[in-house]
């Protein structure tokens, strides 16, 4: 509604909100909120308040004001030092990939120096509920924040009222003394500013956080020494947190001792003791949706992503069973926007091993077959082209290239990942993090140093993780002197360079990456000879037809259908002659263009259609596709024999077949052949 109001009267919102910003005041009428109590999924018991989450519903006008303040405060926070360089959550231009890639880079770098590395994963208890308004406004005032921002934050966090809604709740508003609201656009930013002091400098170590999830990494000559260092760092963090009224959720703590893939010694069993609780080292740790193992193997991560994707697929495939349900166009959208992100989450950092890649491919072929309604005997390269879903190995490489491009175009002043690149990487800023340990590599023998980012890996020497990510962008660099910049407006301390020309912008490089994907698809996964259609990332026009009719198109184009010249397991020994005209083999082209039994109807519906190859205007015309689908329905071309047995040649040569419905009969809807 407010969008329509702003379109009709652009000055209204400005006049309403400007006085509130000028005086640093949040109106009392906007301080009343309703909290919805939701169960946290995956809990064994729900008998404690920690098993529930409160999501606050706020007035839309209040959210607009909070969004304006958040955009201003995020820029100011970077400018005056309210944020730590190793904070990556709830900040524009940063993501979980930046946090995890920084962690793995530091682990591998410290291991390259010959140290044993360990990490302790911590979680702040309560989080948003423990933000003290007085300490937060004092921190803003001490860093020189604008008076109106400081006054507004204090007004926003004080004198609030909230009521909780759950079964049997009294629905009475109660005062809220501390904390910021979950569901508010500015609450994550205020919390990140509040916990920024919890990032001490560690010699040969690092503290990285994503909102309330922290990881403390240390290194020394042994894992037992690392345990002592972690216990000392934990006590130091608890002391800093206590001054701000924060505590860590100790039962959620996890410990991992990192190993190199070449290590053959028994894993360390040294555990850490925190607040009289003992935590042994874990074999797998989940942090920000990524699964980490001591040797940083990818199999543990992708096996869990595969299980999640299979569960999602089992739920959505009921929306489009064989021969009915959602059209292939919507199935393609579900596959690309739901299943692929679930399956490939973390592929920007990890690359699956050969055996795991085979398992992922088997699942992806099921998805492609579900989208197209093709037979299981359809060749895999044809199946990928018909579904407009690239082979998974190429899709993973494309996603890795896009993540690397985003990292290299990000300002290293605000992103800890590009701040650890070699200075020879041609991004637009020469800034590199002083907290990185890359300077220690100069002490190593040159034969043991990591590879430079441009050097291909042809020996046992390897890149460091972030430099390996940068190496993926070499096909996009070309003759450019440097990569374009992105999100430069997030670094107010810098003089913003002129805008990149359109040919060198990040958007242009993303389009070039898609072009590389298509070229690799054509060269590395070509279809068998005789299949004329090229790969495409855009769904075909006929995929908008009903599921059963679109399946006729997919099956006949792929060469595995109910036509006589398309043998499969059910008609392998049948003759390939057209059963209607007995003139030649019943191919897709013959059935549509040359069959004498169908010629009269074809001339009346499609008189200008002369070809079915890739250059035919048929495939780009929605009207022609609709007419062709009517022709296929009237002649029962490519239909299962059990549904509409073909008429004898003598009778069908003079009269068209009866008009069947678009959906198959109930007894065929669950046919094994169609299901495959």
Task: Explain this structure.
39% of the residues lie in helices and 9% in strands. It has 22 helices and 13 strands. The protein has helices spanning 2-8, 10-23, 60-80, 96-112, 133-142, 147-157, 187-194, 223-243, 299-316, 328-344, 354-372, 380-387, 392-409, 465-471, 474-477, 506-524, 547-558, 588-594, 599-605, 622-635, 649-652, 672-675, and strands at residues 32-39, 52-57, 116-125, 160-165, 174-176, 206-210, 213-220, 247-248, 254-257, 272-274, 277-279, 285-287, 290-292. A hairpin with a 2-residue loop joins strand 12 and strand 13 (290-292). It starts with a helix and ends with a helix. Mean pLDDT is 88; it is low at 648-676.
Mean pLDDT over the residues = 88
Residues in helix, % = 25-40%
Distance between the termini: 47 Å
Shape: globular
What count of helical segments does DSSP give?
Answer: 22
Total strands: 13
* Biggest β-sheet strands, sense, barrel: 5 strands, antiparallel
CA-atom Rg in angstroms: 31 Å
Percent strand: 5-15%
Low-confidence stretches: 648-676
Computed structural class: alpha+beta
Features:
676 residues, alpha+beta, five-stranded antiparallel beta sheet, four-stranded mixed beta sheet, 22 helices, 13 strands, 39% helix, 9% strand, disordered C terminus
Short description:
With 676 residues, this protein is of the alpha+beta class. The protein has 22 helices and 13 strands.
């Amino acid at each position: 509604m407010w969008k329509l109001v702003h379109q009709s009267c652009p000055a209204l919102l400005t006049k309403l909100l400007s006085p509130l910003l000028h005086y640093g005041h949040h109106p009392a009428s906007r301080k009343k909120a309703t909290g919805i109590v939701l169960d946290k999924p995956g809990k064994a018991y729900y008998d404690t308040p920690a098993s529930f989450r409160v999501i606050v519903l706020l007035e839309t006008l209040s959210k607009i004001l909070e969004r304006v303040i958040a955009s201003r405060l995020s820029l100011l926070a970077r400018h005056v030092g309210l944020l730590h360089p190793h904070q990556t959550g709830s900040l524009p231009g940063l993501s979980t990939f930046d946090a995890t890639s920084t962690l793995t880079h530091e682990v591998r770098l410290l291991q390259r120096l010959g140290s044993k590395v360990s990490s302790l994963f911590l979680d702040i208890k309560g989080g948003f509920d423990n933000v003290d308004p007085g300490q937060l406004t004092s921190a803003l005032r001490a860093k020189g924040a604008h008076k109106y921002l400081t006054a507004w934050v204090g007004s926003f966090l004080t004198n609030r009222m909230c009521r909780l809604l759950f079964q049997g709740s009294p629905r009475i508003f109660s005062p809220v003394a501390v904390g910021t609201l979950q569901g508010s656009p500015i609450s994550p930013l205020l919390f990140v500013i509040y916990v920024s002091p919890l990032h001490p400098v560690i010699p040969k170590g690092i503290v990285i956080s994503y909102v309330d999830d922290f990881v403390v990494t240390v290194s020394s000559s042994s894992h037992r020494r690392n345990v002592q260092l972690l216990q000392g760092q934990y006590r130091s963090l608890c002391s800093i947190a206590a001054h701000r009224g924060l505590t860590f959720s100790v039962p959620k703590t996890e410990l991992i001792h990192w190993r190199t893939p070449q290590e053959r010694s028994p894993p360390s069993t040294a555990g850490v003791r925190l607040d009289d609780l003992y935590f042994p080292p874990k074999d797998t740790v989940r942090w920000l949706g990524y699964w980490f193992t001591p040797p940083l193997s990818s199999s543990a991560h992708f096996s869990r992503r595969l299980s999640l994707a299979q569960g999602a697929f089992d739920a959505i495939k009921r929306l489009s069973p064989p021969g009915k349900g959602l059209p292939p166009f919507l199935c393609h959208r579900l596959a690309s926007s739901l299943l692929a992100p679930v399956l490939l989450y973390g592929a920007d950092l990890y690359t699956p091993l050969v055996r795991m890649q085979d398992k992922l491919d088997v699942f992806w072929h099921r998805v492609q077959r579900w989208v197209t309604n093709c037979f299981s005997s359809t060749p895999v390269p044809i199946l990928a082209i018909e579904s407009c879903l690239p082979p998974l190995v190429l899709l993973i490489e494309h996603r890795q290239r896009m993540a690397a491009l985003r990292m290299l175009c990000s300002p290293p002043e605000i992103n800890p990942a590009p701040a650890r690149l070699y200075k020879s990487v041609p991004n637009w800023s020469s800034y590199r993090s002083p907290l990185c340990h890359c300077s220690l590599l100069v002490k190593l023998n040159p034969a043991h140093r990591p590879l430079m980012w441009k050097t291909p890996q042809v020996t046992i020497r390897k890149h460091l993780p972030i430099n390996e990510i940068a190496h993926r962008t070499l096909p996009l660099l070309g003759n450019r002197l440097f990569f374009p910049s992105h999100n430069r407006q997030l670094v107010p301390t810098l003089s913003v360079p002129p805008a990149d020309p359109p040919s060198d912008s990040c958007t242009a490089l993303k389009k070039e990456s898609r072009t590389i994907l298509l070229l690799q698809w054509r060269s590395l996964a070509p279809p068998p000879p005789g299949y004329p259609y090229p790969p495409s990332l855009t769904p075909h026009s006929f995929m908008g037809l009903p599921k059963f009719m679109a399946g006729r198109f997919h099956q006949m184009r792929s060469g595995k259908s109910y036509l006589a010249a398309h043998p499969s397991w059910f008609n392998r020994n049948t003759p390939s002659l057209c059963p209607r005209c007995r003139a030649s083999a019943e191919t897709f082209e013959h059935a549509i263009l040359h069959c004498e039994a169908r010629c009269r109807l074809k001339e009346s519906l499609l008189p200008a259609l002369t070809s079915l190859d890739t250059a035919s205007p048929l495939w780009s015309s929605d009207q022609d596709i609709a007419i062709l689908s009517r022709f296929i329905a009237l002649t029962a071309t490519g239909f299962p024999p059990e549904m509409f047995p073909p008429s004898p040649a003598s009778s069908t040569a003079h009269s068209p077949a009866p008009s069947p419905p678009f959906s198959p009969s109930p007894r065929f809807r669950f046919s094994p052949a169609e299901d495959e």
